[in-house]
Sequence to fold (345 residues):
Amino acid sequence: MTLNKPADVNWDQVNKWTARENLNTYWRPYGYPEIMSTGTSAFSGAEQMPKWDIPEQAIISVAINGAFFTKNENPNQATTAEEIIRSAEECIEAGAQNIHLHARDEKGYNVLGVDEFRRILDVLRQRHPEIAYDACLVAVNDEESADMRAMIDTGLIAGVPVNTTALILGDNLFVKPPHVIIEKTRLVVEAGLTPQIAVYSDADVDNARRFLIDSGLVKGPLSWLFVPGLPGCSPMWSPETMVDGLMRIVRLIRHVDPQGEIIVCTGGRSGLYLANLALIMGLHVRIGMEDTVWKWPHRDDLIDNNADLFKTVLSMAKALGRTPMPAAAYKTMLADSVTRQKQAL
Fold:
């Protein structure tokens, strides 16, 4: 079969030089005897292809259930104490080192009661004392404010998110006023717990800067949680918006806290794709049924259980040459943060 020659190529010139020089490429091995050195250049001591500055260890936190999704959205969602414990233990058996928890009432809604948390955490801490546990404590009325204070003082958990946010989250108004951001942070630090700065959009990073960092209430490096992808949060509608959104938030956080540890929560449709991107960027991840119900962005398959999701993300991390951070190292990181924050106070 003979292909037609494109009319805009000067074939006479091509044929003339092919006859003179055949199909030879110009090649001068100035670094001989090496063809391509993986170390330094023959002309310089500089590394030609330096290693990336990626931390070997990755925090892979599992958020078992959260406060958003009910069994109506995903029948596999853990709501009872027994279901939450079972899901957490399945993840621990699979290798999870950090478990993030919410307590639910008999109707399946989020609560902050110490008794509800104890029914979960007393069992898990007794059976798995080596694991790091944290929990989200967002009070929405006077009763929950009292419960939050009591939970902070129990010593059952190591870290508490502080949401520096004001947004319409789904169909809900979700606003942490400045006094709540500041006072909750103070309570968490004085109780010897780590405040995890939880941001949902770029404006939340500025709130953290204004009220916590530049005020001198906290001192970096800090622990950050970035929760995108849910309605009203930093949009992740496509691969392009996912990459752009994550890059922007990381740049903003690095501007105010250059050495901070960023845990990317795989919210909404972004799910496993965002987890993979975060791990590639050397960040940490939080996965699980708190932040999404779906396995993949382009399909409606629901997450069956948290342990299977953890195994998938663990295999992704290992494929990228990263290993899960042991609970002991994570606890040490949190303890170091507590020391810095108490010094700031």
Notes: The longest strand covers residues 194-199. The longest helix spans residues 239-256.
